[in-house]
Amino acid sequence: MLPIKHASERQEQAAVIQWMKLQHPWLVNHTIYIMNEKKCSAYVGSKLNAQGRLPGASDLFIAWPTKSYYGLFIEMKSLIGKATKIQLDFLKRMENVGYFSCCCIGSDNAIATIAAYLANKS
């Protein structure tokens, strides 16, 4: 997949989902987008947290186990993006309980990660 010049994180993530729909359409039904980046007031934020929002949770979760992992968490970033400490801490916690988790810079990196994960070579 060709990189999108100056693509935002949302565009990179949409490219991953589009690839998935074309290459592994069954996997889309096992993929969850975790809308965690919404900026809001402290009041709305506290209500969202009370409902289970978890700061730092990854953007995508693929609920498909392999021989080695229970599932895959992906923190998406644009080509110029960088994960925060709270996001990296979340990824580490998920690794510690049997999930494969990573921060992917751009759609090409995420696609390669998913392909390797499905081949159980991650």
Instruction: State the separation between the terminal residues, measured CA to CA.
Output: 20 Å
Radius of gyration: 15 Å
> How would a textbook summarize the main sheet?
4 strands, mixed
Question: In terms of structural class, how would the helical and strand content be classed?
Answer: alpha+beta
Strand content: 5-15%
Order of the strands making up the biggest sheet = 1-2-3-4
Q: What general form does the structure show?
A: globular
**Mean residue pLDDT:** 91
Low-pLDDT segments: none
Instruction: Count every beta strand, where a strand is a DSSP E run of 2 or more residues.
Output: 4
User: Helical proportion?
Assistant: 40-55%
Q: Count every helix, treating DSSP H or I runs of 4 or more residues as helices.
A: 5
- Secondary-structure element order, as H and E? HHEHEEHEH
